[in-house]
Amino acid sequence: MRVAYPGNYPGNCHTRIRRSVLSLHEMTNDRKVRILVVGDAKTGKTSLILSLVSEEFPDIVPARSEEITIPAEVTPEKVPTYIVDYSSSEQTLDNLKDEIRRADVICIVYDVTSGESVTRLSTHWLPFVKQQTGGTKPIILIGNKDDLQHASSLDQVMPIMEQHKEVETCIECSAKQLKNISEMFYYAQKAVLYPTSPLFSPTDECLLPKCVSALHRIFRICDSNADGFLTDDDLRVFQSRCFDSQLEPDALQNIKDVIRGGSSGGLTKDGVSVDGFVFLHKVFVQRGRQETTWTVLRAFGYDDSLELQPEYVCPRFDVSSEFVVEMTLKSFEFLTQLFIVYDKDGDGVLSGVEEETLCGVSSCGVAWRNENAIALQYDTHRNITLNGFLNYWSLKACTDLRLFFTFLAENGYTFGADTHSVTSAVKMIEPAHVTSRQLFHCAVYCQSSRTVTKFLHRVGTGRHKSDVLNMMKYAVVTNAGKSLILYTSDVAPEWVDINLVIMESCDVDALESVRAVVNGIDSSRVMVAWVCDTNPDVAQIDAELVRRLDLPVIKPVGLSSEGCLPLVSDLIEAAWNPQLVKSDAGGIVLKMMLSFAVGLVAVFFTQKFFRQS
């Protein structure tokens, strides 16, 4: 149902609507609106335009007005607007067709005192304009000379509007009395910036499926505890983020009254349901307040076709080869909260249903389920843990920014983190600034893909499995507040913090092959691990041969034991301080220093505790 405005419509629509669209100025300031004014001769087209510009009725009216430019700063929407007049006495039919194609919105002016003028809307003007545009451009019907009529013409016009869905609005006005002149052009501008056709079907009197789907996503993002209802606090946050204003108690009550009066189940003791939320926006559109719904849609990244804008989902973010990328604290907190909210039973893992619910509005789907080459932490039923979830996205922030940004944007990162772009979810750091980093990178070299797969699985999942079916390429592990991504050598980035060479045996040939791998690599960035199925504590390494071949320290590691865990700690320590891998002594000295420091801290707090007691 579209809206028609009689001549006695109060001329204060600017102030009523302006407050609700202020948050869109940044989104619309790169747009412009071109309004074409057409209609039969003597209907007052030119008088309307000149009355708008001069704010008085012209004594002398030319056959056609020159093109009028209204600067952005004087329009309610802060959008530059161009008004183009048409005169059949000065222009050809080809000129008219060309202007219709260039226009964003067409205003058809008719004489409210002339029945013939009203009739020609449906017999000539609307079919002609539709023929040029294919019905894709909005049309505003303008009934002029309202000062001369005794009864509204809208009863005659409404059936015409129903037959032509491209007609957005009809408004009656008077150029002579300056009645509804600014409103006329405001609604023309509004028809371009806030079109009804993508939102609503006038035939079925319901919101269109794409609009409903978008509102469902928005509702889910705003539902802070994912219980299926928006609480009063949720609605207040929603109002603040979308409209940059507070939701007053009276306004909140009005919203509830509207939903209660028209949507069964839309309002419960728990809050507003998704059906109530969608119904509320249906009411906005039906009442001609579609700018409210568009404000919400655009705040959550939608364009005029109700598709998420590319710059919202995956904005350009150039990564220099001289920097490393990792998640910011803000994105880490967002993902943590997202996991916790959808872990409904609080068991620390996401079950299949919980995963599907969390990822239901994202085009990424349950992304981690589709990548079998990444070793992540799951429980025995292959439900991902919080650490596994965070580690997965730590990896994607480095290796697949498009997927990372898309997942965050579609799940409401810019809303939840109160930021304008998902680019704030990552940061670039110079590799040498290790004290500023929480994430490090390790390339793993091994001649046997089966052995490296078993190793990555053991490190990434924390469990030993003798028959890993999928070939692992990545593992992510967190230790003492720092994370390490391990890559097989064929997928590792050009620059890594540490290189790990895995040996399956410790004979002369194996040591020679290690020497060939590490040749040319900075020795301070190389560690060697002997992965053995026997107890690594009794493994025998020919130390003299290692010294003679000038190899780094070799650490025996048993996959079936806890031996991988100290190795991970050593790798992170070595990445943070490469000097640690130069000799055994370095590692021993560091461990002694750390132990001494921990002891001093323990003594200090013990003494402090007893003094307070």
Question: Can you describe what's shown?
Answer:
It is a single chain. The strands form six sheets. A seven-stranded mixed sheet has the order 1-7-6-5-2-4-3, sandwiched between helices. 42% of the residues lie in helices and 16% in strands. The protein has five domains: 3-193, P-loop containing nucleotide triphosphate hydrolases (Rossmann fold, 3-Layer(aba) Sandwich), CATH 3.40.50.300; 206-305, Recoverin, domain 1 (Orthogonal Bundle); 311-430, EF-hand (Recoverin, domain 1); 436-581, Rossmann fold; 583-613. It is of the alpha/beta class and 613 residues long.
Number of domains: 5
What is the gyration radius calculated from CA atoms?
Answer: 34 Å
Taken from the alpha-carbon principal axes, the silhouette is elongated
* CATH level-3 fold name of the largest domain: Rossmann fold
Q: By helix and strand content, what is the structural category? A: alpha/beta
Total of helices: 23
Uncertain stretches:
8-29, 583-613
Second CATH tier, the architecture of the largest domain: 3-Layer(aba) Sandwich
> If you average the pLDDT, what whole number results?
84
Q: By CATH's scheme, which homologous superfamily of the largest domain applies? A: P-loop containing nucleotide triphosphate hydrolases
Biggest beta sheet attributes? 7 strands, mixed
**β-sheet strand percentage:** 15-25%
| Head-to-tail CA distance between termini | 75 Å
Q: At the first level of CATH, what is the class of the largest domain?
A: Alpha Beta
Main sheet strand line-up: 1-7-6-5-2-4-3
Overall strand count? 22
